[in-house]
């Protein structure tokens, strides 16, 4: 048997509607707050710290340097031909970690936005960078 709803007075009906609206509003605000926490949590995980940026730059060097046209000739010049796998990671760390550690947090955040000349200037200039590459390759000799 179906149970009949007890008849409500208009005041009771109005009070019931107000309470339903309040509950609905509270639920909406809880969802908004939960989404804000989630959004800020994801944003903080996406932003790179300076140390993470330096690690990413070194990783990029490890991935891309072997495809540089001069890489094999530089290895051959230092007697390291065919040793890319052994040499590449220590070489990239040597070339990049010291100059990147000298940059400020803002410089590191904006580093990828700079053109090549400005990047080289931040790293001490083209001549200093080439000299550091030569020193790092020479340090990799067995």
UniProtKB/TrEMBL annotation:
Transmembrane segments: 26-43
Entry annotated with the keyword Transmembrane helix: yes
Domain of life: Bacteria
Keywords (A to Z) from UniProt: Membrane, Transmembrane, Transmembrane helix
Protein name (database record): Uncharacterized protein
Organism (species): Neisseria shayeganii
Classification of source organism: Bacteria, Pseudomonadati, Pseudomonadota, Betaproteobacteria, Neisseriales
């Amino acid at each position: 048997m179906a149970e009949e709803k007890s008849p409500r007075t208009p005041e009771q009906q109005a009070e019931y509607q107000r309470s339903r609206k309040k509950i609905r509003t509270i639920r909406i605000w809880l969802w908004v707050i939960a989404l804000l926490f989630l959004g800020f949590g994801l944003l903080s995980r996406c932003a790179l710290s300076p140390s993470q940026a330096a690690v990413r730059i070194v990783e990029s060097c490890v991935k891309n340097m072997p495809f540089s046209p001069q890489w094999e000739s530089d290895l051959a010049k230092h007697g390291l031909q065919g040793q890319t796998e052994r040499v590449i990671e220590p070489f990239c760390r040597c070339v990049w970690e010291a100059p990147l550690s000298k940059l400020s947090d803002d410089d590191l955040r904006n580093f990828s936005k700079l053109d090549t000349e400005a990047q080289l200037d931040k790293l001490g200039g083209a001549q200093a960078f080439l000299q550091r590459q030569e020193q790092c390759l020479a340090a990799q000799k067995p």
